[in-house]
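ping. complex inputs:
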Amino acid sequence: MPTFLEAIREGLRQEMERDQRVILLGEDLGEGGVFRATEGLVERFGRERVIDSPLAESSIVGVSIGASLNGLVPVPEIQFADYIHPAMNQLVNEAAKIRYLSLGTFHCPITVRMPFGGGVHGGPFHSQCVESMFLGIPGLKIVIPSTATDAKALLLSAIRDPDPVLFFEHKYLYRRQRADALPNEPLPLGVAQVRREGKDLTIVSYGAMVHVALAAAEAASREGVAVEVVDLRTLCPLDRETVLASVRKTSKALVLYEANRTGGAGAEVAALIAEEAFEDLDGPVVRLAPPDVHFPFNSTLEQAYLPTSDSVLAAIRKLAAY
Amino acid sequence: MPTFLEAIREGLRQEMERDQRVILLGEDLGEGGVFRATEGLVERFGRERVIDSPLAESSIVGVSIGASLNGLVPVPEIQFADYIHPAMNQLVNEAAKIRYLSLGTFHCPITVRMPFGGGVHGGPFHSQCVESMFLGIPGLKIVIPSTATDAKALLLSAIRDPDPVLFFEHKYLYRRQRADALPNEPLPLGVAQVRREGKDLTIVSYGAMVHVALAAAEAASREGVAVEVVDLRTLCPLDRETVLASVRKTSKALVLYEANRTGGAGAEVAALIAEEAFEDLDGPVVRLAPPDVHFPFNSTLEQAYLPTSDSVLAAIRKLAAY
Amino acid sequence: MASSAPAAAITQQRDTANSLTEDDLRRLYELMALAKACDEKAWTLHRQGRISFVAPCRGHEAAQVGSAYALRPGQDVVFTYYRDIAVGLTLGMDLPNMFLSLFGKEALVNGGSRHMPWHLCHTGLKLMPATSVVATQIPQAAGAALAAKYRNDDSVTIVYFGDGATSEGDFHEALNWAAIHRLPLVFLCENNGYAISTPVSRQMSVTSVADRAAGYGVPGHIVDGSDPLAVYGATAEAVARARRGGGPTLLDAHMRRLRAHTSDDDNRRYMTPEQIEELRKHDPVDEFRQKLIRRGALTQEAAQHLDDTIREAIDQAVEMAEAAPEPDVASLATEVFGVAAGQLPPASL
Amino acid sequence: MASSAPAAAITQQRDTANSLTEDDLRRLYELMALAKACDEKAWTLHRQGRISFVAPCRGHEAAQVGSAYALRPGQDVVFTYYRDIAVGLTLGMDLPNMFLSLFGKEALVNGGSRHMPWHLCHTGLKLMPATSVVATQIPQAAGAALAAKYRNDDSVTIVYFGDGATSEGDFHEALNWAAIHRLPLVFLCENNGYAISTPVSRQMSVTSVADRAAGYGVPGHIVDGSDPLAVYGATAEAVARARRGGGPTLLDAHMRRLRAHTSDDDNRRYMTPEQIEELRKHDPVDEFRQKLIRRGALTQEAAQHLDDTIREAIDQAVEMAEAAPEPDVASLATEVFGVAAGQLPPASL
Ligand SMILES: Cc1ncc(C[n+]2csc(CCOP(=O)(O)OP(=O)(O)O)c2C)c(N)n1
Ligand SMILES: Cc1ncc(C[n+]2csc(CCOP(=O)(O)OP(=O)(O)O)c2C)c(N)n1
Ligand SMILES: [Mg+2]
Ligand SMILES: [Mg+2]
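pong. complex structure:
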């Protein structure tokens, strides 16, 4: 049963076999990368397609953009999502605007892979959830798989997508999520997945928190509360219809995410629900997320920081009783 | 009647007179800066305190951080907020975390001044509203004055604040907003201001959009709708109490902002209202903001892009009638 | 795809300036005169309030034309910045599109009404999309050169940037990539001694951008950026070197910016009247014209005739562009993404 | 403020390595042996599953101790990176706090339980807060040096970073600032030939980081980073130069990283068994010990005694730190901001 990490590796290998234009670049990639996602690829495809970059994120993205404008399909890796910040200018001011400002005459097919997320004793610089920063940037797609199956299928679409895609890989899931078998076909971006059906309350989530939601939903079911869990899978495009349909059915919405509470993707989802499903709501739109502090190193603090199935269950109880 | 721009210049001058540790640094600052905000300051304080930096934003912020750790109170300018992106790493991974990760033994008193915003024929690279990107970053305060009076008073607090402050100056207001006289005392950060009272509907806004809201509110009053306008003044700290008190009174909330609709500060405010004032709401929380596209150059497109008092009035009518 | 075929601006490349024919010299002059005339027209239009923004190229004509003349239009890959109209004109960008772009109308190139005026972008000419952001194009150019090397297609990439741009981290990162991978890439610094109001003496502590090259193991040369032949020669050599696998070169073309930074700037705030007066004495277009006349490659009459032809062509383009319709506001929402939400991407890009 | 007074680690500075007394030599050795022992203990603790992370300093002891010994603790300003415990120990960082930090417990320095282990931070020692982010400290150090120059206090700032860090734009931007303002700043590259698994040959196309300096008008020197005396001498000279207003220096200290990058890494994935075997032959601490013994500055017995004393002190610190209470989860919310919402800042910071 292949892991999430193997799903990524398989996705990369499949696309590289299929399309000569796909190249990988990033720090330590040639030796397999710090998470071994690219292990074996240099042996298979050579150093011309699996490039150990200098330690310089702005140029990892900048070089990828330029290579994409000149006919390649680069898949840069940022070693940890925490280190995407030096490349922000290339992503936000450049990659995101190329199609729009060139009236579609140019486009920028890059897929920026970024291991992210907490629960792995990574501390403040190897745990951050930075996806929220990109949410308001037109022109950037944001993909965050929660299962090994999705990891591969969404990676295929991301690489094939003609526009820049931020592809977040949750480190906690790398070796913990497994698939029976890996798909060979892409999944469209912008389609959320109902991971569990329920009539009483909707949890909207993505990434590793989907599994926390599912655990809490299971516990809640034993208390007679039927929780529906919607896995967004992509933050952009955001599958508004699936979210709204679920909330219209359950009338109660809880948004669960791992980024800091304020300004996160959860705010967008909550605002969407408050605007579009107001008539159907039987309770406040509740957000559950880490507090507005930095990610701590110590594991006692880390546990207190992250939402858990217990804290989600408590929130379910409260909202269900509303 | 001093303008908003003069209020900034006056604020800088006052703090530089008061505190030897205050220095300015940024591109072209010595010659007054491209908006002339620092005009005359090099003559008054010398090139040691008003530093023409190299064209390198990451180091403008990085040098400011280091100088602040070693006892100065730097006020860096980023020539346009659109160009803060190269400095994102220094701001988000460094400045924002210094107090927290040093347990308060170090802190980083910098105030990053950034002219921002549209309506000035600036096109895609001289109009952006980037404030949303910083909303989820613990440790960064975000100040966005809408009047000349506030511009000075809030700048004083920002400079005196012991932590990093992002100080956004709306270019459209620079020469259009005037004060009778400028205050010499700071205003606390985190206190919203009710700019207009009304019982029927609340508009929450900030920056230049406050004036659009006020114009629309005036028009609505002639149609018998009493609109309350809350000017947030700071996005972090966010004055939740003032927002919630207003919405509890009016039962209807419209959030108006100039950043792209998705993921903006408006999402956070809408989510806050949906969570905390649900019981009091008599209608959906409506967001009005530019579409999720890049800022266009052509002025016909620019006008279509930005919310106007007409589009706000239309939204008021619709929500009031709900 | 809104590309048009590259105009037949340049028929033949020669390795050194010496091998240029008199036709080449006249063509260089024509392009410089055209760029100068476009610039002057734009400056006037701005003062008349008919356009809202222009970044002038005056003083940069020799460097832009001379360097671009050493390229194969539509084959070599070109990254420009906001001041590079003469590069575009040399490669074959046409006047109607240039003036549509200046007026912010629906040109089919340069980002049409959406983008800043005269930020070049043209697929057929391999003018990669320019933004206003300083230095970002430099690592992108390294990426384009990496792609060419990967494909082994013998194209060379050139990237233009100012002296101020060299302070950005992106400049350093790109030089490092180019050096490590020996990329077929020419770095062309249009060193006009100023970044807006900041003189190069406050931008760096060395006297030349070329000094930076050695630290990467890259050759760096200072070039007289006011002499189109010097720039042509240096660029042709660097291009040839890149083409035969010799790796990148950094050219530091020294020149003067004859106007304020852009139409939003006023250089009297940071230059003395004497400095501004001095600028007037150094017009590379006039100088080259005199040189060709002295050399007998051009007559006063031919030059005058050329000016008239150019003026007429520009006036026509202005008239057309100014009268062109405003964009449809419904177009605001197009071309954000190539594949809609919920759709699968095409099997092949 | 959670600072403790700087320990009396260094009593006197001397300008060149030659002027060091035998006491100084022994002190240098003690500090190197202490750092090595801390590192070995940490590595063991990690393998025993008692701590979750460590970035080793093995192989860097000579460079870290030698350079820090040329500083005035508590007066000169120090920016370190994640591998620099020997810098901290040399300046006077105490073992109890070091091991509380390693265990992620509530140390009053180094960010206590919040921060990554052994990311140094100590107000009294002017150890500026280190993060895990590569190269960000370099422009910050330029800023600190700018502040010192502005105040005209005679402090010097030193900044430590690895060979990989030189590829980041921040390295370039900082060198440029330092050069333009002739800042009292020493750049000390701990060049161990690798950035995680990436050899320096893929990181840059020149053979030495020192080669980069000339392009900024800054002196650059290669130093034997395995020899504490060579590093001390070069640093003392650079510090003296900075102190007398001579501006920045870039030192490129070449050394070997004797372990994997961190406890998360496995260097057998990218080094041959022979390469790893070779590393074992180059322990700068052993080498310096032998040198001092040969020279008569140290006896076998004294060295053995020192090892015992160190081991005991470390064991005590480990015991204390491991038994220290876990942090209170309520503390998570403290020290985000210094001034609460709605409050005015104090009149003076
Ligand atoms: C990243 C970034 N920072 C700041 C600016 C604002 N800005 C526009 S042009 C310019 C000066 C550029 O000078 P230089 O590179 O020498 O080119 P020149 O205009 O002289 O040709 C500045 C600071 C910008 N466009 N991008
Ligand atoms: C900005 C950034 N990018 C990537 C990383 C991940 N990373 C941590 S250490 C390291 C290698 C650093 O190498 P070097 O600068 O040579 O220092 P060394 O570890 O060899 O002492 C990398 C890539 C990081 N911490 N920060
Ligand atoms: Mg210039
Ligand atoms: Mg290294």
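Residues 22-47 of chain C form the longest helix (26 residues).
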